[in-house]
């Protein structure tokens, strides 16, 4: 290894991701290096102003054994995103903390209705860059239980 180089943790093609700022202990996510930005399944999106700043309110639909979750977060922007079917959509963007395995970091995530997708979240390459290597032959390389300390 080159002097000063650091080793990166390895993730599989699917991982558990905690979003503590949103009070989401974990979500099953597909890791997708073909997607630039991460995306979270969200419905009932509402853009509003609070304390002179733009915010977005949304619902994260229920998972097995859990109720739906209403969230408010400062709006980081609006992006045009080309979806997997080739259509361009405008999406709300927030910045939030991610926890994958033992690694904590902040990254952007777009809010999108992913009800037709197999995973409620997609982790894109900008969140992965300089943090993780991807081994597409495995899933849940960071563990198949919720990340340690994901409620913090």
Automatic annotation (TrEMBL):
Source organism superkingdom: Bacteria
Going by the UniProt record, its keywords in alphabetical order are:
Hydrolase, Protease
Q: Name one GO biological process term.
A: proteolysis
Matching entries from Gene3D superfamilies are given as: Acid Proteases
Q: Name one GO molecular function term.
A: peptidase activity
Entries under InterPro entries matching the protein: Asp_endopeptidase, Peptidase_aspartic_dom_sf
Q: Outline the extent of the Retropepsin-like aspartic endopeptidase domain.
A: 11-143
What protein is this chain from?
ATP-dependent zinc protease
This chain's source organism reads: Pacificimonas aurantium
């Amino acid at each position: 290894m080159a002097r000063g180089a650091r080793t990166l943790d390895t993730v599989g093609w699917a991982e558990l991701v905690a979003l503590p700022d949103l009070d989401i202990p974990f979500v099953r996510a597909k890791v997708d290096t073909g997607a630039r930005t991460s995306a979270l399944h969200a419905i009932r999106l509402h853009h509003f102003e609070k304390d002179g700043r733009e915010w977005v309110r949304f619902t994260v639909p229920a998972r097995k054994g859990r109720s739906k979750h209403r969230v408010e977060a400062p709006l980081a922007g609006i992006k045009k995103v080309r979806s997997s079917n080739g259509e361009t959509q405008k999406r709300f963007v927030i910045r939030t903390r991610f926890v994958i395995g033992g690694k904590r970091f902040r990254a952007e995530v777009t809010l999108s209705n992913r009800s037709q997708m197999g995973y409620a979240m997609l982790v894109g390459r900008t969140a992965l860059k300089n943090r993780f290597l991807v081994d597409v032959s495995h899933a849940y390389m960071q563990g198949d239980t919720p990340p340690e300390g994901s409620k913090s």
